[in-house]
Amino acid sequence: MKDSKKTQTTIPAVEKVINVSLPIEAAFDLFTKGIASWWPLKSHSVGNERVETCVFEGRAGGRIYEIQGDGTQSDWGQVITWEPPRRVIFTWHPGRIADTAQEVEVIFTAIEGGTRLELTHTGWELLGDRADGIREQYESGWNYVLGQLVGRAERTSN
Amino acid sequence: MTDISSLDALADSTRRQLFELLRQGPRSVNELAEALPVSQPAVSQHLKVLKQARLVKSRKQGNQRIYTINPDGLAELRDYVEGLWQDVLTAFQEAADTQAEEH
Q1: What ipTM score was computed for the predicted complex, to two decimals?
Q2: What is the Cα–Cα distance from A147 to A143, expressed in whole angstroms?
Q3: What is the pLDDT of residue A55?
Q4: What CATH number is attached to the domain comprising A93?
Q5: Which of B5, B12, B42, B53 has the largest CB neighbor count within 10 A?
């Protein structure tokens, strides 16, 4: 380990901002619990053509998953922070095991004539040192994912 | 959403540890094998998977092979995610604006 210099491997978060003409409560509900009515399932799902619908369970610890025609469920992620109508944070690992989850935060802000939505997708470091903070928020043990990540973060920070 | 082979490659904990070590700087196979409780042939096999996923690359230096993170592969991954959310948010925006018009 002679080389201690840091390489440029930090990947910036993906950040997206859009405005919609719905009031904040309605925008939040449509984005989360109403997800099945708008999510582009045919192109953005694990089962593609086989997918019937998707579900966003609106609560901390709630699952986000798709349901295929034969009843098969495939997880996309899990809600970490549930603060309607202003903020939701969820893990994201569609088609992959939860160990490789990244994190998506969506912030809703009331603006004139509607709502601004800011989406930030992070976790290129597989949550890295943020995992400790998340563990403090949710010590309930529901999340195998975060347990794994926290363990890893501790190992890598030593 | 299934074609992110680089993330699949990181599903293995040993590969994740190798990847994290390489984030800190270039390492030879020997150095990597010393840092982990894994044999050198096993490390080489894991590095091969990471290389196929374009997460790492290697160069010959003397009689050693030095591994580094492959920024191109990470940038591709980011582009993929960028495109995904663009598509998804466009669909959301259309649905939201349609619902707003109905009221």
Answers
A1: 0.71
A2: 6
A3: 97
A4: 3.30.530.20
A5: B53
